[in-house]
Amino acid sequence: MKDTGVGISLENQPKIFQAHQTFGQGQMNKYGNGLGLNLCKNLATMMGGNMGFESTPYVSTEFWFTVKADIAKEEVKEMGIRRKSVIILDDNPMNAGVLASYAKKANIAYKTFTESEALLKCMDELDNSSVCLIDLYMPRVDGFEVARRIREKYE
Asked: Could you tell me the CATH superfamily of domain 70-154?
């Protein structure tokens, strides 16, 4: 992620991932308590990766992170979901596209829906061993209701 804000001063850069660190003056500190970057770094580390940044004071800051994706692949194999299909429901086409690209890269069949009603209309065509990734906050029919109806159908 790159921004074109004020950057991070050289003095503050070594402390950027410490908990409860906020930098700036006045109003800039009222929007957070300094935990976000600390949590992100810890999550990346827990997933076998790292997080870092490059910053030019008064110009911009670019944050990056890595994780070991093969960890997830092994967990999927252990769960016995190899080569099943994935149903993706998200009203944001960008989110649906990102999830679809992960499925495609893993050579897993997938079907995307951007409307709850469309998924519900073709439920009879869905494989009952499919994994469903559902955005819970959908317009009109929310993801909670979609999940309830899917469970009801296949229980």
From this structure: Response regulator (3.40.50.2300)
